[in-house]
Amino acid sequence: MKESDGKIVIVQAPCGPIKGITEVSDFNYEYASFYEVPYGKPPLGPLRFKDPEPLEPWSGLFDATVGVQNTVEDQIINEDCLKLNIYTKNTRLEGNPHPVMVLIAGGQFVRIRNHKDYSGPNYLLQKDVILVTMRHRLGALGFLSSDDPAIGVPGNAGLKDQVLALRWIQENIADFGGDPENVTLFGFSSGACCIHYHLMSPLCKGLFHKAIMMSGSAFFARGLMPKLNWAIRLARKLGWEGEDSDEASAFEYLRKVDVKAMKSTEQTLLTDEEKFNGLESIYGPVIEAYKSRMCIIPKHPDEMIKNAWGHSIPLIIGGVQDEGLLFYKDVKENPKYWDNLNTNSSVLLPYNLTLEPFKRELYGNRLKLFYFGRDYATVVDKLDSYIKLIGDRNFWYGIYRAIIERLRNTDYERRGPTWVYRFAYESPTMNQYRLVEHARGFPGVSHADDVLYIFSNNEGYGTPKEGTPEYVMMQLMVGIYTSFAINGDPNNDLLDAAMGKWEQISCSNPLFGCNIANPPEMMELPEKERVVFWDTLYKVSREQVIVPRDKEVWD
């Protein structure tokens, strides 16, 4: 980002007056930034774990000129986090309203990076759109729950924070030059899972008009978490000495605990048995046990998806070529994991694949045979196949299931246009997740590598130079995303010149989509055979109904 004279921009919005600042992008255009704008009451003290509450309008001038440079850890433990960043090239806040793109970032429901050094606006604002990034509660603060209405913590506070942010945008974005009738919600990984729930929940109907789901859905491995007495277990770890039956006391204790201590303890709660059965994390979306003011997940997504209002709006959905590289570092450097995998096939199955114990081992062996064949000494000899397996298990199957359910539960006339993609561009320099965080020295395109071509990022490669293949790919991705936000269709002149028309999916070929590479091309995605195999396993699980579905609270 280049130096700017930092002219002040003042917005008179329904929430109150806000002072922003102009900046200059690496592409030499000027834009206005409004940092850390609050959209809800700080969820502190008695509001910890509770559903979010709207913020009363303020009268004084709110200073939104300074962006937060917090580390990831700082953002996790900062409770006063119900904040938005708003970026607009329309610095005079006049003329025709611009389409609005709202990001829900990923991070496994426990971390988030949405500040400008990670999710910067430089690329997207080359086009006439407004970018909004949000922070919301994570971990225990955002996803601890109780089935007792008297405690008042039904769960999914982090999801409900997002709903409150979307309501704020509807009420205020016009004064930033945005069009509240043209809002695209987009996000990756757990952010895409959240978007999928928003597409299913009537609570969110009308708050956005198009969606992009990148590498995630409500059907992915962490899309719905079990309720295993987490509040009691967490409080106990932190020194609480009450009775296991007194959950209200445990919550009162947790409302006074230091957030940093809570964060450092949460991953120690998993038992060896839970880990063995595929449970990798303790926080995420849950089915709410009773109806409340902001109930967002009243029943299992298997049921919610049947009447999802979002089936009727335009959708882009897909993933990356080698999603499983996200886990490469963990498994490559963990000999005990490999030893366990060689002797206990059931550890290959995710927690949400509910099978009788003897079937878990049986189906684990089927997975080994399907992915590895018979000719290997240990699983580590088939690391490339393992990367495919773990990527399909944790991401691609959930993507496939979301596509199939969208097709299954709507007819052609009522279904919004749907485009499927697979990001497969492998860069020697810019695929930051593979190169820096996950799998240095291993080829491929890692989970979230596509994000680097949508958002300017000062933590890694930086802005690609004009004329490089990375620059061409960045412009292609920006064209796809902004064309969709503006027109409801990802097709644009740049994509047309590269491959022709990106066709929508059909019931006869649900995984026929755009393979975004150099060059891009339409193709049947190579994951198809593998995700169909996973679907046979999940169908057995759904037919067993080992875990009873929670009662519906919406009639």
TrEMBL record:
Belongs to the type-B carboxylesterase/lipase family. The keyword Hydrolase applies. Pfam families: COesterase (PF00135). Keywords: Disulfide bond, Glycoprotein, Hydrolase, Serine esterase. It is an enzyme of class 3 (hydrolase). Its EC number is 3.1.1.-. InterPro entries: AB_hydrolase_fold, CarbesteraseB, Carboxylesterase_B_AS. PANTHER family: CARBOXYLIC ESTER HYDROLASE. One of its GO terms (molecular function) is carboxylic ester hydrolase activity. Residues 10-534 form the Carboxylesterase type B domain. This is Carboxylic ester hydrolase.
